[in-house]
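Progress note, sequence design subtask.
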C-alpha cells in the first residue's frame, strides 16, 4: 500500500489492540478501491482515552473505530452521539468532521446486515433470544427490538441481574417485550422451545477456549432454530457445531465484523467498501 503525505488516516483504539483484524480488513478495502487513506491500530490505555480522542482534532485524523475496553469511555469526549449509539450506550466509531466529533455504533447495523445476508432472512422471527448481557448483547437486543416484526426478545444471562437491567433499558427504548432470564438448562429448554433465532453474544467459545459452548443441552435445539454466534475467532465455534449436529442452521460472527466495519468506512469516507474483499482479508488471517 502506498502511504503518502496526502493520505487521510483512519484507525482503531483498544487495549489490547495488537491482534486486531480491523487494519487487515480496512486496508484491503482501501487497496481494492485505490483511494488515499490508510488504517492503523493505536494502543490506548484506559487513563489516556480522553487524550487519544482529543488527538483526533489535533492530528486531523478522519475516523476511529473503538474497541474493548473503551466503547463507553469515549462517549464523554465526543461532541455528539448518534441515536443508535445513545440507545446502545456504546460508541464503536468516531467521525471527525472539521474538529467536530460524532460517536456512532455500527454494531447494530452489522448484526442486522449479517443476519439478513448470511442467515438469509429479511423478516426476522417474532420471538428471538439473546445469550449474554454485556455490550454486544445491548447492541443486538436493540437491533432486534427495533425491527417491526420482532415481538419479543428474551435475554438469557449467567448473572441474571445484568439481564434484568438490560431488559428494562431496552424495553423502554424499543417498546417491545424484553424478557430477562437465567442461563440454566430448564430455562433453556423452555425459552428455546418458543424461539426461532438465538444470537450468542457471550464470550464463551472464543479463542483460546474454543472447546467451550454456552449451550447447556443440545437436545433443546430443534432443526428450525437458527443460531447466529457473534464470536468470529474461531470462525466455527463449538456452539455452531452443536447446532449443526442437531440439523439446525448456524452462522459465525465474521459477517457482523465485516458489516460493522463496512458501515464505519462508509461513515468516514462516503464510499461503500467491497465487503467480499474485507471478509477475505480476515479469513486470510486464519489461513
Ligand atoms: P461484551 O461487552 O463484549 O459483550 P462483557 O460485558 O464482558 O463483554 O460480557 C460478556 C458476556 O459473556 C456476559 O454476558 C457474561 O456473563 P455475566 O454477565 O454473567 O458475566 C458472559 N459470559 C462470560 N463468560 C461466561 C461463562 N463462562 N458462562 C456464561 N456466560 C459467560
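Output:
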Amino acid at each position: 500500500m502506498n502511504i503518502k503525505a496526502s493520505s487521510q488516516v483512519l484507525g482503531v483504539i483498544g487495549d489490547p489492540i495488537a491482534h486486531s483484524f480491523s487494519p487487515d480488513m480496512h486496508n484491503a478495502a482501501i487497496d481494492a478501491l485505490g483511494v488515499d487513506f490508510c488504517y492503523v491500530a493505536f494502543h490506548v490505555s484506559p487513563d489516556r482515552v480522553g487524550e487519544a480522542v482529543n488527538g483526533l482534532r489535533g492530528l486531523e485524523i478522519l475516523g476511529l473505530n473503538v474497541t474493548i475496553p473503551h466503547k463507553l469511555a469515549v462517549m464523554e469526549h465526543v461532541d455528539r452521539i448518534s441515536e443508535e449509539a445513545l440507545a446502545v450506550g456504546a460508541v464503536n466509531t468516531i467521525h471527525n468532521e472539521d474538529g467536530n466529533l460524532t460517536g456512532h455504533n455500527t454494531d447494530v447495523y452489522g448484526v442486522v446486515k449479517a443476519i439478513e445476508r448470511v442467515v438469509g432472512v429479511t423478516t426476522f422471527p417474532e420471538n428471538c433470544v439473546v445469550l449474554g448481557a454485556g455490550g454486544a448483547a445491548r447492541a443486538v437486543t436493540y437491533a432486534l427490538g427495533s425491527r417491526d416484526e420482532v415481538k419479543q426478545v428474551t435475554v438469557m444471562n449467567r448473572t441474571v441481574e445484568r439481564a434484568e437491567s438490560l431488559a428494562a433499558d431496552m424495553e423502554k427504548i424499543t417498546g417491545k417485550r424484553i424478557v430477562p432470564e437465567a442461563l440454566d438448562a430448564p430455562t433453556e429448554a423452555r425459552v428455546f422451545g418458543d424461539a426461532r433465532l438465538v444470537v450468542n453474544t457471550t464470550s464463551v467459545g472464543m479463542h483460546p477456549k474454543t472447546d467451550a459452548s454456552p449451550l447447556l443441552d443440545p437436545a433443546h435445539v430443534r432443526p428450525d432454530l437458527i443460531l447466529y454466534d457473534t464470536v468470529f475467532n474461531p470462525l466455527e465455534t463449538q456452539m455452531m457445531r452443536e447446532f449443526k449436529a442437531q440439523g439446525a442452521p448456524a452462522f459465525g460472527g465474521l459477517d457482523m465484523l465485516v458489516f460493522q466495519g463496512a458501515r464505519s468506512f462508509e461513515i468516514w469516507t462516503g464510499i461503500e467498501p467491497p465487503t467480499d474483499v474485507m471478509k477475505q482479508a480476515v479469513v486470510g488471517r486464519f489461513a
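The chain has a mean pLDDT of 97. Work on this subtask will continue into the next period as scheduled.
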